[in-house]
Design brief:
Blueprint: E1 7-10, H1 16-27, E2 31-36, H2 39-52, E3 59-64, H3 70-84, E4 89-92, H4 107-134, E5 138-143, H5 156-176, E6 181-188, H6 210-220, E7 231-234
Parallel strand pairs: 1-2, 1-4, 2-3, 4-5, 5-6, 6-7
Length: 242
């Protein structure tokens, strides 16, 4: 199927990596649905995407959906079905970070990170699979982090969520590949966004950009159907020497 007839859903797409992915898929000719935690964030992102006039066929729509909410994630997939009638690519990008020594990190903050970064992708995947299958299959891309394989002090919640997401992604790949759904995880290193640790860095020039992650998503879903690049580690090419 030509890309201009295909539909992608990107969660957590009001800014940063998610916005870059939505923009890139729109430029690739996909109709793109997005979500964010607030309706205002969704409306602002849709306006910016539409104003860029990426390609004549680009179509964007979006709705508020909290990744922590099972009900919201089901409603999000229903929104995609009602708006576009199909789904070909799901990008689970929504995520948050709370960074604190484990004895100081309150339970509600730990819970928020794990529910957003791990439960959210599960909910979206669970509800999206029937819609993907109805169209003959598709691709699910989980945006993780190198924190999925590299623990760090202060990362108990974030590491737990990303270690879990990688395991979820790899298990889902095995569950779904014989049904024509390919699942992959992209694990970026340091990305120059407002998220997470980049606040403390004085020089962001060596970091990955959000567009680098979007490029990886675009390349990944173009792989021939016979192949799954089930995990991509994406690292800055010239980080500061230690």
């Amino acid at each position: 199927m030509a890309e201009e007839n295909r539909v992608a859903l990107v969660t957590g797409a009001s800014r940063g990596i998610g916005f870059a992915i939505a923009r890139r898929l729109g430029a690739d000719g996909f109709a793109v649905a997005i979500s964010a935690r607030t309706a205002e964030g969704v409306a602002s992102a849709i306006e910016r995407l539409e104003n860029e006039k990426l390609v004549p066929s680009a179509k964007f729509a979006g709705t508020q959906a909290d990744a922590r909410s099972e009900r919201d994630q089901k409603a999000l997939v229903d929104f995609v079905d009602n708006t576009f009638g199909r789904l070909d690519v799901l990008v689970n990008n929504a995520g948050i970070g709370e960074f604190e020594s484990v004895e100081k990190l309150e339970p509600e903050r730990f819970r928020a990170v794990v529910e957003t970064n791990l439960f959210g992708p599960y909910y979206a995947t669970h509800f999206a699979v029937p819609l993907l299958l109805r169209g003959g299959g598709g691709f699910i891309v989980n945006i993780g982090s190198l924190a999925a394989v590299n623990a760090f002090a202060g990362g108990s919640a974030y590491n737990a969520s990303k270690f879990g997401l990688l395991g979820f992604s790899e298990s889902s790949m095995l569950d779904l590949r014989h049904q024509g759904i390919r699942v992959a995880a992209i694990l970026p290193g340091s990305v120059a966004t407002e998220f997470g640790h980049s606040h403390g860095a004085r020089d962001h020039s060596w970091m990955l950009s959000s567009d680098d992650v979007a490029e990886a998503v675009s390349d990944l879903i173009r792989f021939p159907d016979r192949a799954i690049a089930s995990r991509i580690d994406l690292r800055p090419s010239r980080p500061p020497k230690r």
